[in-house]
Structures are given as C-alpha cells and as structure tokens.
Design a protein that fits this description.
Blueprint (H helix, E strand, L loop, with lengths): L2 H7 L3 H7 L7 E5 L6 H8 L8 E5 L3 H9 L5 E5 H9 L4 E10 L3 E5 L13 E4 L3 H14 L7 E4 L5 H6 L5 E5 L2 H7 L3 E5 L8 E7 L7 H20 L1 H12 L13 E2 L3 H8 L4 H15 L23
Parallel strand pairs: 1-2, 1-3, 6-7, 6-8
Antiparallel strand pairs: 3-10, 4-10, 4-11, 5-8, 5-9
Amino acid sequence: MHRRLLLKTLPGLSFGLGACTAPPAPLRVGAIAFAGYAFLFLAERLGRLDASRLRLNELRSNTDALRALSTHRIEAAALTLDEVITAVHEGVPMKVIAVLDSSQGADAVMARPSIAEPAQARGCRIGVEATATGGLVLGAFLEKAGLKPGDVQPVPMRLAQAAEAYSAGRVDLAITAEPWVTALESLGARRLFDSREMPGRIVDVLAVRSESGASHAGALRALLAAHFGALAAYRANPQALAAELAPWLKLPVEQVPSAFRGLHLPTPEESRQLLAPGGAVAVGLPGLVNLMRELRLLGGPVDVSTLIDTRWLAAPP
C-alpha cells in the first residue's frame, strides 16, 4: 500500500503526527580558551555535557562572542561583565546568570625588561584587544603611569596573540590574561601592572540572551552544574585533571596550575552571593557602567536594573 494512502486509512494518525513537537535545538554557548572558562571545556571532556542539549563553541576572542550573540549564532557566552554591558548597550538583550571568576591579578600589562616603570611606556607600542576590558585595563594603567591615551601607540590584537606579537617585536607592552601572561613570562616579559590594582572591575560571567532563558532552562541549569562540577573535580584531583586541560590551554601539564594564578573561582554559593542584592557584583554594577562612560566605552546610559537573573543557579540542598 502507498504510504500516503496508508496514512489516510488510519484515523487519528495525522492528528497525532501533527501534535508531536521536535525537541528544542541545543543551547549554543561560546567561550574563548581563557583559564576562567576552562571548566566549561573540562566538563565537556569529562562527558558532563549532553550534546543533545548543549553545544560548546570555542571562539577566537570575546569580540567574536559578542558578534555571534548579536547575530543569533549562539545563545549564551562566557564574557567579562563589562562586555555584557556593552552588548546590552548595543541592543542585545542579555541576562547574567552566574559568576565564573573574578580577576585578582590574572589580567596584566606585560612589558619588555627595559621598561621598569609604567611611566616609561610613553611613546611605546602597547598591544590591546579592542574590547571594553582592554579599554578598562589600559585606562587604569595609563592613570597609574600619569599618561594620556595619546602618549602610547595601541596595537590591536587578541589576548591569545600576545606572546606572538611580543616575540615578533610588534609590541613593547601587551595587555593580556592567563594563560598568556605565563607564556609572556617564559619569554622574559615583566609584569608592570595587573588587576589587583583595580579590584572588582574585571569579573567573568556566564550570560544568556534574555529570550533564550525560558526555552533552554534545563540546559542552562545543566551547564552551570557541569561547570561547577568540573571545578570541584579539578580541586579534588588537580594533578590528574591538569593533563586534560593542558592541550586546551596550550601549556605543558606542569604549568596548568599557573594558568589560574590571580583568578578567584567561586563556588555556586559564592556566585549566588556575589550576584544577590547587596552582593559585590550587584552593588558594583552601576559604578562599572559609570566608569565605562567616563572612559568613553559607552555612548550613553545603560539600564542594568534587570541584568542579573540567578534563577538557573541551583539553590544549595
């Protein structure tokens, strides 16, 4: 019997087929190969991410992640908080759902050995990523050095290009983060300034497009559980799991612990506290917006009153 004729002969079957709905497409998540995001990828390597619900995409830069969010090629991303604010300012509706890390020295200005003081950067070429974070670190460094933006020569680069640009002689200083700070130190570069001198300003978060939260609620909860589970597993057995992280971080196994130097990696409860009303991140959010406006990283006001949403961060048992 012909298939179409068979369908006509089975009462109610066509209704049943029409009532079936396809499962939602996987939640697409973007992140770069930065140490603070490493446990998302470690969770994937450990088989803790369900590929039918979650798809992790390694991107070259956070600028690429912002572009992918704005063009609907991903629904969620690991970004710095200031980059999420930038996305909202540019019309991308976002929610911050968890804190992945806070920088306490992990972001640094690395310089050639001949540059011993920040003031000696006058007239020098400084590699910096064209992101809000790059602008924040550069602004803080120049303030400490007593210099103006016109006193240095910015050289656009991605964070991961710092060692290459330094080795090739294209920059005299580079603004980057771990694990690339460690790579520069191995080349003889010295740490001239780092995020310890701008406390609370660089916070990495997991953020999702606002309209995707409800349709991917289960996937978001699973993603956060996988991240924090992988972090706990690493803390319990760092030597064994360093071997899993080394290829992704592009570091020898013995240097993997140094990639997390200067990063505070919160537990789920700490993340919840940081984002709760009265928490450090929530309280500092308006001040960060104001600082970004002062540095001309934003062209106008940004409403961040509803930016934080922790409903997907599972409550403690």
